[in-house]
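Hey, I was hoping to borrow your eyes for a little while. I'm sending you its amino acid sequence along with the C-alpha cells. Take your time with it, there's no hurry, and the full record follows here.
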Amino acid sequence: MAVIDVQNAAGDNVSKTDLTDSIFNIEVKKSILHDVVKMQLACKRSGTATVKNRSDVRGSTRKLYRQKGTGNARPGDIKSPLRRGGGVVFGPHQRSYAYKLPKKVMRLALKMALSSKFQEGNLVVIDKIELEGIKTKKFMEVVNALNLKKILFVTAEKDEKIERSARNIPDVKVIRSEGLNVYDILKYDHLVLLESSIKNIEGRFNA
C-alpha cells in the first residue's frame, strides 16, 4: 500500500493514509491517456456547423435565360453553387463527433491519471474543508495555505459551499468523486483529494 500525508486546511500534516497500489501506483502509459483525452475532447465538440446545399437555398428553379445564342455559359437556376447566394458544395453539416472506447480502457486510463499525479508528487490529501457559508475569500485562504497552482479539488459528495465558493477562482475547479475523469486530472497541475473521497474513488473500481 502506498502511504501519503494528510494535511489540514492550513497546510499542516496531521496524519497519514493508505492508497491502493492498484489504483494510485500503477505503470503509466501515455498512449492510453492520449486516446482517452482525445475521446473526451471529441465528445465535447458541438458539431453544429452547417451550410445550405443547392436544394436548401430558397429561390426559383426557372432557367435564367435560354440555353444557346447569348454567348454566356449555359445557365442553371439561381440556386447554382456558381452564383452568389447559391448553395454551398461539400460544406459541413451537423453531426456528432462522439465515440466510445472500451470500458476497460477508460478505467485503466483513470487509474493511470491518478497514478501519474501520485508518482509526480502532485497529489495532495486534505482531511476536510469547513466553510461557514459561501465565501470565496475563505476558500482562497485554503488555496493559499496549500501553496499550489492550477488545482483540481475532489469532494466525496455534493458540497454547495465549497463548489460555489471556488467557482470564481481562476485555475481552480471542484469536482465530485463520481465525476472524476482523465481530462480534468491531466489538465490541472495538482490534484487535491478530500480524505473522504478516497473511499468513493476506490469504490468505483471495486464495483
Remarks:
- The longest strand covers residues 13-19.
